[in-house]
Each structure stands twice: as structure tokens, then as C-alpha cells.
Amino acid sequence: MGVTLEELKKKMADFAKERDWDQFHSPRNLLLALVGEVGELSEVFQWKGEVPRGLPDWEEEEKQHLGEELSDVLLYLIRLSDVCGIDLGKAVLRKLELNALKYPVNLCRGSSKKLKHIHNSTTATATSTSCITNESENGVANNGV
Amino acid sequence: MGVTLEELKKKMADFAKERDWDQFHSPRNLLLALVGEVGELSEVFQWKGEVPRGLPDWEEEEKQHLGEELSDVLLYLIRLSDVCGIDLGKAVLRKLELNALKYPVNLCRGSSKKLKHIHNSTTATATSTSCITNESENGVANNGV
Amino acid sequence: MGVTLEELKKKMADFAKERDWDQFHSPRNLLLALVGEVGELSEVFQWKGEVPRGLPDWEEEEKQHLGEELSDVLLYLIRLSDVCGIDLGKAVLRKLELNALKYPVNLCRGSSKKLKHIHNSTTATATSTSCITNESENGVANNGV
Amino acid sequence: MGVTLEELKKKMADFAKERDWDQFHSPRNLLLALVGEVGELSEVFQWKGEVPRGLPDWEEEEKQHLGEELSDVLLYLIRLSDVCGIDLGKAVLRKLELNALKYPVNLCRGSSKKLKHIHNSTTATATSTSCITNESENGVANNGV
Q: Which parts form a coiled-coil structure per UniProt (chains A, B, C, D) (predicted)?
């Protein structure tokens, strides 16, 4: 049940094709549009200070607006992946596996610490683990996906 | 076929729970982590000038790296939606319907124009249409989702 | 006293020229580089929850790192303005004047409210004021520049 | 001559104080507001494809709008630095010196290459150099500040 990334990709491709918008949907155009939507998403949260999970104090209208901004980011992300020829569904399942290797449960439980890691700009260093115990003097937070 | 947003949400929730990371996954923490990943995604494209669809000149390693950055954005987006109590699958299908109303095919075909529209910061102005003909003097591009 | 935007612009231009980097410094390349640096800035804050002004609990090393990320954003912003032919010093002083008109002291004092305002995508609506009293039912926060 | 970062910091601090907005200007609130403005800046460029330096084809109104968005990013960046207790003018001059060490002219001239570098998340690796000759097989672009 539930909507798949494939279905959303198809809907976006059809939407663009019907409007003859493929001419505008270059990778960097879509990337900048995505950044624009992330900006709008940030605006929803910008003057609120910390907000608790579940947004208990938000009005329904605000939550709906938030859902729209989250959706805009998602739609551009899916469209960007598509025009780049990236199979996002396949990529995300692979990334989840890499994350499981990178953040082993036994080393990462409750840890907000991160090893200085070699940041290789063209490929993930998935074979190195990235959590350390709280005994470490390294105070940099980590809880990444 | 294909992975659903629901499945990814579940996987992310389990991943965080196993590592006792729920304590770190507040809405604004996750939002800033998302912004961080969008930054990494942008770095993939930053010195390349315009790149054609399909990324024909990219090496396999670079495409794989791109897939990882796209995935990181997706995973934080899904996690953020979850901790906010937003049903992203439902929201995105609703947003697609709003977009279809906002950008009617007959008015928007091939148009990169956008009406100055009233930007209501708490709810989408879905009932107003946003494309105009090329005769307009308004040169602001539009092809948004 | 203190460093001017003009001086920083000159330093960046010289830096690029000496390294023959003008060829890479197109507007959109620099914009994406800026987004990348904003991502790195966000990472500094991402797992911290709310942090008080003055960052009393941060170690000196972290503050220095923060200063570097803030600087990277500034340098790309100045460089982007330069290659776009925008006089940032002039623009920012004009924007401060527009903000003073847009947010009058007597209407905006202590107010986190914002009128739904007409968002004109090509020019600021500087003549309309944007604050309202707390009696308003509009709960959208505002304290923008 | 020209406006200094110090002057802009003072103007922003006065602006906030007059409106009793200090209560809203926490570090993460301002950071998210900055991200919002970067989103608006990106929207200016999002559907344009590559644009040449100097923006020769842009109308005056568009350039003015661009100047406003660049200014908004600058103002929030300066304000964020201020409330974090970071002396941005001092930090940026130091960063320029670090960059000069990191990207030596003789190694970086015309090079769009970057060494895989150890990314230390709490301090810059300013003593390591980051450019390599074009003979390198590493195709990752670099021209960073």
C-alpha cells in the first residue's frame, strides 16, 4: 500500500510533458528550484524556536501548509533524480544499507559523537564506521542518515 | 512495484529507534540536517556549468555519489515529515492535485511565465491559476511543481 | 574602521584572477557553491537543539569553525554579487531603507505577526507595511529583514 | 570607502532593538531565516539555465530584485554572526589567509581539481594544500573559497 517513488516520478514526468515543460527541466534548473522549496520549508519553522515532535500547538492550516512545502521538496527531488537518470528508489535502498554499515547499532546507540572521517568527495566511505562511545573527547554531534 | 514512502518511513523510524536516536530527531534538528544534505547535493553540481539531462559525461562513480546525496535528502525529508506527524504520501498526492488546478494545461503549455500571484503564507492559492501566455510583459520564469 | 564589502570584493577578485579561476566563477556556479556553504553552516547547528545567543557552551574550536563557515558564505555571496555586476554595498544600504519603511517601529514593536502580503516576484513591496498588532488572528511569525 | 561589516552589524542590531525583536533573533531562528533567503535568491536563477557574468540580458527591475535578495542573505548572515558572538570581519580576513595557504597560486592556477582531503568537521585543514595539476585522474571540481 502507499504511493511509490516510481508512481510519483511518472506523475511528474507526465505533468511536465503535458505542459511542454521538459525544456525547462534541466538538472541545475531543478536543483535551484529544489533549493527554493527548501527555503520555503525553512520559512515555516524560522521564527518558532524549538518545536516538539508532532507539532502539538500548530493549527491545522499551518500543518497543511507544511505538508505542501514538504511535498514540493519531494516532487522536485524526484524530478531532479529522473532527469539525471538516477533510479532514486534503488539508490535510497542502497543508501540505507550503507548507513547500516556506517552506523553499527552496537557502536552508535545513544551516541551523538562522530569520528573525524575521511570525506571522499566522489564516493561514500561506507566501510568505515562513524560512531564512537561517549568517552571520546570529540564533541561533534552525529546522527546522520 | 517499487519502494513506497511508507516503507522508507518505517525503515528510518526503526533505524533511529535501534540506535536510540529519537532524542536527536527533533523537527528543527532534522530540518537543518536536510539543509546540510541539500548543500552536499549542490556541491556535486557546483563547478560544472550547465549539465545536460541524463548526465552523459559523468563517470559511474560520480553518478553513484549523486544517487547517495539525493537519497540523503530524501531520507531526512521523510524522517522530518514523520516526526512532524505529516503523512507525506497523502500530502504529496494532494499537492499534485493542487498543482494540476494551479497550472492548467491549456494556459501553461510551453509557458515560462508566471502571474504575480498573491503569496499567502499559510495556505496555497490553489484556486488561482498561475500561467499566462507569452504575450505577457512579465518575464519571470515559472515551471514550478 | 573595519573591513568593507568593497575590500572583500577586491580580495576575492584578485584571488580568483591569480589562480585563473574566473573561468569557473559563473553566477550559477557560485550560487551553488554558496548553497553548499550554507549547508556546511547548517551542519554546525544541526544536532544541537536550540542554542542560546553568544554560544556560551561552545568550545573555542567550534566557534572558530563556525566563523569559518560564516566567512565562506560571505565570501561566495560577495563574489556572486560581483560577477553579477551588483554593487552589494549600495544594494544593502537601500534594502535597509526599504526594511525601515516596510516594518515601521510603531507597528512592529514586539510583534511576531505578519500581514499576508502581496509577494511580487520582481520587486519588493516596500511601500506596504508588514506588521500588525497581536490582536490579529494571523499567526504567521515575522521578524524579517 | 564603502560600507563596513561593523556598520551593517550595528544597523541590524539597532533595527532589532527598536522593534523589540531580539526575543526572536536566536541563532537557529536566524539561520533558518538565512536559509529562507537563500531559497529566494535561488528562485531568481532557477529557470534561467546558465547566465553569463554581468547578466547582460536582465532587465533593470530583475537586477534590482536580485540585489535585494543578495542583501537579505547578507543581513541575516551578519545578524547571525552577531548573535553568535562571532566577529565576522575578523573571521573573514582570517579565512582569506587560510584560503591563500590552502590554495597556493602555483599549484592551483587554472586547476579545477581537488585532492581528496581529510574533512575535519571541527577545524579547517588549512595547512594541507588542496589543488593538484591537471594530470590528476581526480575529476572533482574545485575552486572554492
A: none
